[in-house]
Amino acid sequence: MGCVPLRDPGAVVVVSVKSGYDESEGEIMAALDWSQCPAVESVPERRSGAWVFRGTRMPVATVFENLEAGSSIEEIVEQFHVTPEQIQSVLEFTSRSLDAPPAPVAPAQVPHAYSL
């Protein structure tokens, strides 16, 4: 997974197929809209709906886990029988998604003291 340091030295952004905040690791996981990536699909009957490479049972998360562990793309291709093009497509999608400007966040609604 690619990590980008934030201003807070205890936090990092982690590319993930999940989203949320992991308090134990102090990480903010970037939520990606995998439905926009043509190389993957989520089928409820296959891997409990996890995002997998289209036409396979290979979870996309496995690629990131293996890259993080130090595997090369060639090793992942050999071990999991996916194509280099499939992996490249997912990596390019992830890169483009992270380059996109963040969605605006609405300010928190604070009740007026007189409305209580």
Written overview of the protein:
By secondary structure, this protein is an alpha+beta fold. The chain has one domain (3-99): Arc Repressor Mutant, subunit A. Helix content is 28%, strand content 17%. It starts with a strand and ends in a 17-residue tail after the last helix.
Question: What would a concise description of this structure say?
Answer:
The chain is an alpha+beta fold and 116 residues long.
Separation of the first and last Cα atoms: 46 Å
Q: Would you report the number of β strands? A: 6
**Number of structural units classed as domains:** 1
Quaternary structure classification: single chain
Order of helices and strands: EEEEEEHHH
CATH superfamily (homologous) name:
Winged helix-like DNA-binding domain superfamily/Winged helix DNA-binding domain
How would a crystallographer describe the biggest sheet? 4 strands, mixed
Task: Using the coordinates above, name the CATH class.
Answer: Mainly Alpha
CATH topological fold name: Arc Repressor Mutant, subunit A
Shape, per Cα inertia axes = elongated
Could you name the ranges where pLDDT drops below 50 across 5 or more consecutive residues?
1-29
Rg from C-alpha positions?
18 Å
The number of helical runs is 3
Percent helix, as a range, is: 25-40%
